[in-house]
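STRUCTURE REQUEST FORM
Protein name: DUF2029 domain-containing protein
Source organism: Streptomyces radicis
Requested output: structure tokens
Priority: standard
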Amino acid sequence: MAHPPPRAAVRPTAQDEVAAAGSELIGGPAGRRAASGHPWWSPARVIALVMIGMFALGMAQKVSCYESGWFRGPAAQYTHACYSDIPHLYEGRGFADGLVPYFDRIPAEVSGGMEYLEYPVLTGLFMEVAAWLTPGGTTDPSPAQIYWLVNAALLMICAVIIAVCVTRIHRHRPWDGLLVALAPALALTATINWDLLAGALTCAALLFWSRGRSFGAGILLGLATAAKLYPVLLLGPLLVLCWRAGRWRAFLTATAGAVIAWLAVNLPVLIAAREGWAKFYTFSEERPVDFGSLWLIIAQRTDAQLESVNTYATGLVVLGCAGIALLGFAAPRRPRLAQLAFLVVALFILTNKVYSPQYVLWLIPLAVLARPRWRDFLVWQCCEVLYFLGIWMYLAFLNSENQQGLPTGGYQLAIILHLLGTFYLCCVVIRDVLRPEYDPVRRDGSDDPGGGVLDGAPDVFTLRRRAQTPQPTATAFVDWGLPGGTLPTPPDDVSRET
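Status: completed
Returned output:
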């Protein structure tokens, strides 16, 4: 059977008015006769270089704290918005003293009461490898400074992997990866903690899935879950979509790969150092309401103790996941994997009892894949940047002698902005699911280019009253890609954008 010819890459400046306006800085939108340039300058290479440049700018933003070694008084690192967990935990979790994570108990005078490392095993291994690469006995720069630099170099690799994976997941939309590379919140939060490791593994899993490699995707998803807990949530969207398409073998294969990989990483530590291994889970359960969450506003406004916050948050996640599953089964067309993946991770973030500023890294690649529109993405990013500044100014207020910084009311406003920005993006994605003609990815006739075996598969189970027609392939309905025999009239706002 003859394969359809490959489609030309979608140019954002031809479909996105914000991208077209921004391109004026480099000469304006590309015309239809524009040359593709030297073949070496592929979208993936260009985006990787942009990602490195933005990551370097994010490191430069931390230079004030780096010069002081992060230990020149608690308030300075907040007023300069350059705080990072990395140098503090180098000493506070025993890496500077050569202690082995999970196996060696950390002295209370070093850790402040944390007996073992409170991170998942694969992240702990990442931290330990960086400690091996950090030379000891130096004074200028100090080992803590070098440890941050080593981690920054390793995390930069993770950031490039994320950007390149997003570039390749949707084959005919490679320039969507530029949204990831230019995301201001990514540059600002990349070296606060180690979240980019789980993000890189998650994006690699999505890339494998998009190529139909279910077991490899599961292996990578299991490794990502061994680095951070949130990637396991993606099994939920996979279950719903594979159920609707009848692709059980792919789902079970991916799930088996995830379980095998997670056990392979965790079982050795669980057996040999059970108490240290369990610290991440007990700490997550016992942690009180903390910065950045809706629960913190409730606690501060009402003086409520919220002792059952775990129950409340879990209940909301369960109800939300049930709603997302209902959306997946009842939508007029089967949602794209990235859409449901973004919604389920965003739900977890919105209902969690803590929101650290680097958690935005979980959502950035998923948001780009779910809704690759510059306007919506930048609206959300503005809210996240404001929250990034707000939390540090609030901590400066709490830790400075003269209470210079952002008071409690101002910080609560920053939290609300973060919540509203994320909720806005969720609403736009839900609208795309319910009204597929709004989905930028499906405008050229695509079904789910990141869906792997789901792409173009007919429905076998839905909650809609009428039986669904098979999903259109990439060669059908080249303008809008809706099921049926006729093309709809584009909505007014969409026609203006195109």
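Reviewer notes: Residues 1-6, 467-498 have pLDDT under 50 and may be disordered. The radius of gyration is 23 Å.
Form closed.
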